[in-house]
Amino acid sequence: MNRTLLFLVATLFCGHLMAQTPIELNWTLEYETDSDPGKLKQAEAHVPGAVQLDIAKAEGYSHYYYAENWKDYLWMEDHEFEYVGRFIKPSMQNGDLLVFRSLGIDYEFEITFNGTKLLQQEGMFTPVRLDLTSLLKVQNEIRIKIYPIPKKHPLPADRSQASASVKPAVSYGWDWHPRLVPSGIWDDTWIELIPETHMKEVRLNYSLSEDMDEAFVKAEALGNNLSGCKMAWILSDAKGNMVDMGFMRAYNDRGVLYTKISNPELWWPHDHGDPYLYTYSIELTDPSGKFLQTMEGKIGFRKVKLIMNEGAWSEPAGFPKTRSVAPIQLEINGRKIFCKGSNWVNPEIFPGIINDDRYEELLDRATEANFNMLRVWGGGIVNKESFYKMCDEKGILVWQEFPLACNNYEDSPEYLEILKQEAESIISRVREHPSLAMWSGGNELFNSWSGMTDQSLAIRMLNSLCLELDPNTPFISTSPLMGMGHGHYVFRDQESGEEVYSTMSGAHNTAYTEFGIPSPSSVEILEAIIPEKEMWPPREGTSWESHHAYNAWVGETWLMPDMIEEYFGRTASLEELVERGQLLQCEGYKAIYEEARRQKPYCSMALNWCFNEPWPTAANNSIINWPDFPKPAFYAVQRACRPVLASARNFKLVWKKEEQFSTQIWMLNDLYQKIEQGVLTATLVAGKKKVDLGTWEFGALEANTNMEGPVLKAQLPRWKADRFTLQLEVEGHPEYNSDYTFLLSGE
Amino acid sequence: MNRTLLFLVATLFCGHLMAQTPIELNWTLEYETDSDPGKLKQAEAHVPGAVQLDIAKAEGYSHYYYAENWKDYLWMEDHEFEYVGRFIKPSMQNGDLLVFRSLGIDYEFEITFNGTKLLQQEGMFTPVRLDLTSLLKVQNEIRIKIYPIPKKHPLPADRSQASASVKPAVSYGWDWHPRLVPSGIWDDTWIELIPETHMKEVRLNYSLSEDMDEAFVKAEALGNNLSGCKMAWILSDAKGNMVDMGFMRAYNDRGVLYTKISNPELWWPHDHGDPYLYTYSIELTDPSGKFLQTMEGKIGFRKVKLIMNEGAWSEPAGFPKTRSVAPIQLEINGRKIFCKGSNWVNPEIFPGIINDDRYEELLDRATEANFNMLRVWGGGIVNKESFYKMCDEKGILVWQEFPLACNNYEDSPEYLEILKQEAESIISRVREHPSLAMWSGGNELFNSWSGMTDQSLAIRMLNSLCLELDPNTPFISTSPLMGMGHGHYVFRDQESGEEVYSTMSGAHNTAYTEFGIPSPSSVEILEAIIPEKEMWPPREGTSWESHHAYNAWVGETWLMPDMIEEYFGRTASLEELVERGQLLQCEGYKAIYEEARRQKPYCSMALNWCFNEPWPTAANNSIINWPDFPKPAFYAVQRACRPVLASARNFKLVWKKEEQFSTQIWMLNDLYQKIEQGVLTATLVAGKKKVDLGTWEFGALEANTNMEGPVLKAQLPRWKADRFTLQLEVEGHPEYNSDYTFLLSGE
Questions:
Q1: Among residues 362-391 of chain A, which lie with CB inside 8 Å of chain B?
Q2: pLDDT for B414-471, tens place per residue?
Q3: Of the four listed, A584, B81, B204, B261, which is most buried by Cβ atoms within 10 Å?
């Protein structure tokens, strides 16, 4: 029996109640197994967690990430489970309420308290708040029945089963995610004792004046029995100095205050300034002057827009003329931001076990990689609250998608009703965060494999709800929109043979919001997930395939062993396979990020597919292995995303001895400051041997402006090496230096 | 003094009250002129009409369409005017209400009754309903002060002045519309005596079952004091036979009834079936059984969707991959409709003088032209109610735009508030009509000359309002959307010299929703608008230019005299200029309509710019001259839009003697029925001389399917003629025959 001590500390949204005596709540999970039908079993329940994990532990399953163990969990999809929570009635005063609260239960469920059914709900993103007071006994029992996972149809057993629900589609199987569908209580859940007079939620709105020198704030605290109480509002700056105070006008169910903050410090993404946060607190005292409660939270002031990409209005030319592209240039506080970042996917298959530490270590990686934006991809969950708080604090912009991805979510009234409920819950929560840069209806919905269009009522509804509830934050229907690009996802196109270098330099997109280069995972990870007897050589139909090395997307994705052999010759060992595949990933990602940056200002974003992964894959496009092991590509991307760097537009990977090598050199500057003139030297290096390519005396770079340099050429020697490096060195600025690796072929 | 007899016959929306005694209302207009400031003058007021017309008549102005007389009206823009309406109190019974109603007052105004200010309103599309009862005297006076026309800024004096209001932008000056901005009472306006117990408005909603064999109808009659009354619902078919009846559930302010119609006849556009309309009536009797009132109206059942164009899901190919195009294939009752039609503009500069006859004659022209769709362009007004009723009856699909065009309508709260009010009024009225095929935010908003984007709050709001108030009708943000094309607007591009033939055969758009070929107006019209001394030769800076012959759009639009001389040689007379320009318009329009049809099914629409015109132009893209004179191009378009025809894809206008002529022949079929196999013969003809091009034995054409035929070639003789004709003849089906005219050059 797992004892979860649940305190009266609600961290929901943006405030907390004062800590009081904990109420002890013991959770058990009741289930039947497929193999033993009719026999009711009990397991210790971890809350938050997942029924699958509780059962796996009780039944002694091996870890789902090893070999093909994930298949053991499949039977659970169509079962019902029941959480049973028991607690002793605490001592209560007249008017006190005892309230059950959960921030998320996945996916459809009903809640019974002491035998009385209180709620049936579909949807994991709408929090639950149930007043238990009138049904209380000395010994109390709350039961949460979890329904089988939603499936639009029994077959095919793929992501399309999720297309009539707001259940994230990824767990129904994706090219980097096994078929393993979680359910159960996945976010903080507790019982709280609340005095009759209390605040329960704070809502903040603000608008910034045109020149951002004034913030008009509306603060609203919702609660009960507040008439006659004093509700003091205090706003403090980041150093703790009070910058504003006042008293709310108290009505019975809420207090309201309008105030103006002069010359507010603005919130910025970390690479453009401080992610400045103010702290507010609202102190509630009763009419007699007795202190009752404080609610606290953070507020950051920023203006966010999507404006037309530079140069895009002049397209299209000629007649018949279609429309110009959709704007995707992000502007924060009036400044155009080139967004560098990645696509964030669930860091665990079971979102119930994602904790603050996991968010923190991954978000620290994001800033370490010089990323200023994460796209929270629509195939996965909307994250727990601490994710957004940390993005606020760390200055990471969040592109938040609704949970729709690669499916045709149809116009049925039943689906639209649930989507509306879930979207309202999501918007009301996430809109409070200054890190929120934009909403998106979901992933790739306007492409053939999804089949939705601008006419789909779900998209029109999401647009409408965002306009109503969060009008100052941009909304896009999906990614990609007209002008934006997704892909490519391989180093070399498997049909045309075209490499990433020319694919990208031939592309003309306003934003590259998905692109990937796969690599094998490190040897250590492979050894942890693939049984020794299957390890070498990798083969289809084994744990390699279960872990996405084969038949994941198209062709030999994501391991690409044939392509690796074509480039490097026969692969002799696992270590060699991994090293070669990872080299391609490093070079490919550098080529794409830097080319996207060279296409600034027409291009305004570069977000690779993908940042992290939910379990240890054998091969994937991610730059961080589960749970938090950076691949070599992580560091290559980190360098490609430095604010200022020397960059080369390269043409291909393999060069012949004595061939004329050529490259075009650039200086890239994403800072809003001028970079002084300098001297860039380009050298080809193989071991200790060098070929001087030339130097470029570049002029000063204006703020947020690149500079195109010359094409440099030199004949390659008959080096014995099979690889060589292009090194770019900036005199006096080693922090701008860059290098690129190439293969040297015999003839 | 103009006496308007205003009866208690409200034709608003979809019903009428029973006729009662008329209330006589006399209207006068009070004004000052610029030339005589401080002196209050009075004019007879025509209601509905325009203050400009009343003043012009009183002041003895010449007609605004002659020469440059329109300039005389400019001073009125910045003046206030006041309508004064007087009436004697009618005899009234206890509980009776006397109500002032107006369906439209243009643009900002305030209404005072017997000295009491009752309303200030901005917006010409929101009807006015004011209860005058409590302020009634024996002699009564209603005053309507008309504010100066809205201008966002004093300069530039162009359409951008309309960008902060919901005033149609066209009258601020367009390339075919003079600067002449109307204001005043523009739609039906009256006073009605209403008994205490009455119905005032009927709202109908329905949904069709998946296979359209059942219509679920909700009928709602709003009114007053209805509790206890009987409200009988009767639905009759087109022959007058009753098909449904029942009694509404009567509440105080409304009666409601839900009913199901089995196997309803569906409403179709005229070229695909009957535009079938049912008649409903609601009879109100008081609790004692005394008959009080009947409201009647029409209802048509149809399902309308925008679905993806055939073949468009397979685009784009390759990576990086952007989204697929926006869907613009209209589907009515499950059938894909190729939309042939035109852009409808205001048929008068002063919408107040548009009457039912004008709508009827122009809408009859539309069906005569084989058009099934009119795009009510966003630069103009939303039409009066009779327009939509006639479209319902005649089976013409209506693409309705909101009044936004070629401007950047900004995100200011003031503008958005008025737009919301006006859009709600527009949607609530027009949604009742089965002819309504789609809503559009406005014209060319996502192009550089407008500068709006998907992020513009006005567009997001319109999408949201349409979703809320009319969810079953498609909404598009603007035209063109991605994949759709606007233009070209000339026979031959003035820079590249490319002719319409190759522009169109090289285009690949899902819909051509604007394209134009200009021509001079007929000699009779030119003589009516251009003073004799300016007539020949046409020159810039004269009435020719005021009437859009020069400097209207770019280059020598719309008269194109230089281009005409380049094609035909020196122009010797007005008659010759007109004949030659009109020939180009005929051939150009045939080329575009037929090429768009040949591109079916990927292409789904062909709507030319434009159908009609608001005053007599000297040259324009329209195919009908004001008020209702078809140009020769009207008949060319009529032939190009026949449901079935032989068609030629031609390559150029001018051929040399002895040159090898070539053309590709096709059979086009938009009918949902099979066309039998046949024999098509192609012949080149100059006077009595002929060259046989060959025959094509074409197979049977499936429903709604074209057939591509061979390219036919023959050497042109050394004919003496300077023109020749390609004649396509289908054996036994002269109704399919087509012909095309070409020029023959010396060498």
A1: none
A2: 999 999 999 999 999 999 999 999 999 999 999 999 999 999 999 999 999 999 999 9
A3: A584
Query: Using a CB-CB distance cutoff of 8 angstroms, which residues of chain A are in contact with residue B478?
Result: 323
Minimum CA–CA partner of A438 in chain B: B455
Distance of CA A604 to the CA centre of its chain: 19
Angstrom CA distances, B189 to B47, B184, B351, stand at 7, 11, 14
Cβ <8 Å between A327 and B447: no
What is the CATH code of the structural domain delimited by A644-745? 2.60.40.10
CATH number of B497-636: 3.20.20.80
Q: How far, in Å, CA of A420 to CA of A400, rounded?
A: 16
DSSP A548: T
Q: Please answer whether residues B517 and B538 qualify as being in contact, where contact means their C-beta atoms are separated by less than 8 angstroms.
A: no
User: By the 8 A CB rule, do B166 and B419 touch?
Assistant: yes
**What percentage of chain B exceeds 70 in pLDDT?**
97
Query: Residue A3 has what pLDDT?
Result: 40
How do strand A108-113 and strand A105-106 relate by DSSP bridges? unpaired
Predicted local distance difference test score (pLDDT) of residue A746: 81
Percent of chain A surpassing pLDDT 90? 96
Please name the residues between 286 and 345 in chain B that touch chain A, using a CB distance below 8 Å.
Answer: 305-308, 313-314, 319-324, 326-327
Same fold, B2-194 and B497-636: no
Residue with tokens 């990645």: A342
List chain B domain ranges. 2-194, 213-299, 497-636, 644-745
CA distance A514 to chain B (A): 9
At residue A21 the predicted structure's pLDDT band, cuts being 50, 70 and 90, is low
CB contact B435 to A (< 8 Å): no
- Residue with tokens 């340099």, as numbered in its chain: A709
Indicate yes or no: pTM above 0.90: yes
Contact yes or no for A319 and B486 at CB 8 A: yes
**Residue written as tokens 């061979």?**
B710
Each residue of A631-665: pLDDT tens digit?
Answer: 999 999 999 999 999 999 999 999 999 999 999 99
Taking an 8 Å cut-off on Cβ atoms, the answer to whether B320 and A512 are in contact is yes
Both structure tokens of A433: 């965060």
Among B304, B453, B554, most A C-beta atoms within 10 A, so best to mutate, is: B453
Ranges in chain B, pLDDT < 50: 1-19
| Contact: B327, A453; criterion CB under 8 Å | yes
Contact A486 B461 (CB under 8 A): no
CATH of domain A337-640: 3.20.20.80
> How far is the C-alpha of A158 from the C-alpha of A177, rounded, in Å?
12
Q: Average pLDDT of A379-399?
A: 98
Q: State the pLDDT at residue A20.
A: 54
According to CATH, the superfamily of the domain at B2-194 is Galactose-binding domain-like (2.60.120.260)
Q: What is the pLDDT of residues B251-293, one digit of tens each?
A: 999 999 999 999 999 999 999 999 999 999 999 999 999 999 9
Q: Which residue's entry shows tokens 């999720």?
A: A162
Mutation target to probe the B interface, by most B beta carbons within 10 A, among A454, A470, A504, A510 is A454
Which residues, in sequence order, are CB contacts of A118 under 8 Å at separation 6+?
A: A111, A112, A130
Is A487 within 8 Å of B321 when comparing Cβ atoms? yes
B704 Cβ contact partners less than 8 Å away, ≥ 6 residues apart: B336, B338, B600, B601, B669, B670, B671, B672
Taking residues A691-710, what's their average pLDDT? Answer: 98
A446-465 residues touching B, CB cutoff 8 A = 446-448, 451, 453-455, 457, 460-461, 463-464
What is the DSSP-derived secondary structure letter of residue B527? H
Mean pLDDT taken over chain B: 96
Q: Where residue A149 falls among pLDDT bands split at 50, 70, 90?
A: very high
Distance CA A8, CA A23 (A): 8
The answer to whether residue A439 neighbours chain B at the CB level (below 8 Å) is: no
